[in-house]
């Protein structure tokens, strides 16, 4: 097992070398979904390692890009439909549904998903859409919080995020202690971990634009999560993907919504400021 891990590490690190690396530039196409043109390229915020931030859609194969652009073909839209059902379903001892308080999601949730994660003063930490859903369920509906990656949690998160389709991603680092969490997330992004001794930046910064295991490495933007992955094949939440990447370095996976992963979500979301929300995006 140790020999295998060392061999994998050597192979991955070799890809970071300019010698023999396979490159593929992102396409220059436009992504239009339901007559809305998505922002897939935009100027990076100050302090960003890249001059331009690029949606992962630009790095995908033609068939994958076409699937996301067509809402009838996008399998992630099934999660949007399921999320709408959950939105209107009464649950919990209070006899309420999401719609009981928020009514029409296309109005009340418009652009909301583009602004998370955000600071929660009561929790004294950032929360994302999933944690906000659980907060509403436990405090307002008298219902239990969802288990991580429960089908209902992923579907409802997808539905809420979909109401922000086309809206530029925004995260307010002036709220509460968000800047402190951003700092922590940045440290984690550049920290090597696991038997393969790799960090997030090794793939999505140093090796951006290269091929690995027949896939094209993007900047690792999160503006399309939850996203449908053909390799799953299923909807995949952001913290599921974080944990999957950490697992692939042969490191111990942190719990979903742990402080480390919430800090990482704050930082990685900031890295994609200005890109349109694409939920549900389609990836390989």
Helix count from the secondary structure assignment: 11
**Helical proportion, percent range:** 25-40%
The CATH class of the largest domain turns out to be Mainly Alpha
* The CATH homologous superfamily of the largest domain: Cytochrome c-like domain
CATH architecture identity of the largest domain: Orthogonal Bundle
Shape: globular
Q: What share of the residues does DSSP label as strand, in percent?
A: 5-15%
**Secondary-structure element order, as H and E?**
HEEEEHHHHEEHHHHEEEEHHE
Distance between the termini: 28 Å
Main beta sheet: strand number and arrangement?
Answer: 3 strands, mixed
Mean pLDDT value: 92
Number of beta-strand segments:
11
Rg result: 19 Å
- How many separate domains make up the residues? 2
Strand order within the widest sheet? Answer: 10-9-11
- What is the CATH topology classification name of the largest domain? Cytochrome Bc1 Complex, Chain D, domain 2
Structural class: alpha+beta
Low confidence ranges? 1-21
